[in-house]
Write a structure and sequence with these properties.
about 240 residues, alpha/beta, seven-stranded mixed β-sheet, about 20% strand
Length: about 240
């Protein structure tokens, strides 16, 4: 028996989160449910807040303090709820795209050797980051979006969405650092992948209030500084 795929409108319902009620609609990510799902909150339109998020069972389901995945998702939803609309693209890309078993092996190697998880993946023969955001970009375009305010600290994510034809403004996420391992992971993200991670000393990420577009000199300064740091971490071309 073949079941017709419901339209976005047919999935509409109300969701209460932290005492606040908001409409949510759900659809499969472009390409099929194996890639993930899209949740549209409120009446999201061009220029809305968007979180493109890869699954992390440890951070989201188990409440691990050793990464920033759970806090980033929680903060993103706080900001979307405060604004009253936005989009979550939830991608089935556990372990930076190599799966939960590979992630567990990487954690074991890191705890055994003291290496960061990027180095551990390399030692184990895994791609450092095997995620793709093309299906996410296509999904956002299917929603009729041409411009998004992307809740992320990852410039590669923004770059891939831009390459797919979307206009992207990065909205960095300042989240609590829950453990020494989480602090080390954030440091590795800065060093190895050029993530533009704000700190309490440089609080240029949005707080839980209606978000505005930041075009101040300090925003441009820290964005340019982060991009320059990322260029310094890239291997020299041969």
């Amino acid at each position: 028996m073949t079941t017709a795929v419901p339209t976005l409108g047919e999935t509409a319902h109300r969701l209460t989160r932290k005492g606040q009620d908001l409409q949510v609609r759900v659809m499969e990510v472009a390409g099929g449910a194996e890639y993930g799902h899209v949740l549209v909150f409120g009446e999201a339109g061009d220029g809305c807040l968007v979180r493109v998020h890869s699954r992390c069972l440890y951070g989201e389901g188990l409440g691990s303090d050793d990464c920033d995945c759970g806090p980033e998702l929680d903060k993103s939803l706080d900001l979307i709820w405060a604004e009253g609309s936005g989009v979550l693209v939830y991608l089935e890309q556990e372990g930076r795209g190599v799966g939960l078993i590979a992630k567990a092996l990487g954690y074991r190697e890191s705890q055994r050797s003291g290496a960061d998880t990027f180095t551990s993946y390399e030692r184990l023969g895994f791609p450092v980051d095997n995620r793709s955001y093309l299906h996410a970009a296509k999904s956002l375009q299917e929603l009729g979006l041409a411009r998004v305010r992307l809740l992320t600290n990852n410039p590669d994510k923004a770059a891939e969405l831009r390459a797919a034809g979307l206009a992207v403004i990065m909205e960095p996420l300042l989240t609590p650092v829950l453990s020494a391992r989480a602090a080390a992971y954030l440091d590795a993200k800065r060093r190895r992948r050029g993530h533009l991670i704000p700190t309490s000393d440089v609080p240029w990420a949005p707080e839980v209030q209606p978000v505005f577009k930041r075009k101040s000199r300090i925003w441009r300064f820290w964005t340019m500084r982060g991009q320059a740091r990322r260029r310094r971490t890239l291997p020299a071309s041969k």
